[in-house]
Amino acid sequence: MDMILMIAWGIWKNRNEVRHGGRKLAAAEIYGTASRLREEYVAAQEVSNQPRDNPIDQLRWLPPPHGWYKVNADGAVFSKHKWAGIGVIARDDQGRVVAAMSQRLQAPLAALEIEAKAIEAAAMFARDIGIQNVVFESDNLQVCSALQGETEASTTIANIIAGTLFHMHQIRHVEVRHTRREGNKAAHGLAKRAQSIDDFVTWAEETPPFINSVILSDVNQAFQV
């Protein structure tokens, strides 16, 4: 029944796209999309049903342990242009920005895929700037659970998860944590910024001006007495 509903939705969606000048999809393409969406739905249900004795969700950004770094990652989908954006920001245990990156991908990735690509980019970024003892954070629970080994990655992101773990293994100590969107605002702002750049932009030991207020808010809340 789930599959029938996914296919019906796919047909309806493609008809609307055709009416607005879009391309008519072949039956196999609609079936493939429906199958992928069903896999993602089933995987998300498995994640939500996982018992969590020590919930790690948080409503604000928190600093990493002393001597560690925290790297937040987020993705954004620009469906109008069939682009996607990635935002990554690394901060030390005092909330100071060590490095940041905003990258645009010329690919029409689905939401789950871009969230997985974002954390993979974060792992490579952390490795390249040479930081060790890293807490990686994403606001996508499905991606975090796959990286933590709590659930099996869906087929659409299995290769991305494998690549991410490979890069993380090149860093001395690594933790992966899930955060709420409220705790991931800086990375989200960087991902959104990708819409206005050609390829990618990085910042080293400076705060990107357009997220300066977010960084200040994060630090004030994290260290308030």
TrEMBL record:
Domain of life: Eukaryota
Database matches in CDD domains: RNase_H_like
InterPro entries on file: RNase_H-like (IPR053151), RNase_H-like_dom_plant (IPR044730), RNaseH-like_sf (IPR012337), RNaseH_domain (IPR002156), RNaseH_sf (IPR036397)
Any Pfam family matching the protein: RVT_3
Coiled coil stretches, renumbered: none
SUPFAM superfamilies found in the cross-reference section: Ribonuclease H-like
GO molecular function: nucleic acid binding; RNA-DNA hybrid ribonuclease activity
Residues of the RNase H type-1 domain: 72-194
Alphabetical list of PANTHER family matching this protein: OS05G0353850 PROTEIN, POLYNUCLEOTIDYL TRANSFERASE, RIBONUCLEASE H-LIKE SUPERFAMILY PROTEIN
Protein name: RNase H type-1 domain-containing protein
Source organism: Quercus lobata (Valley oak)
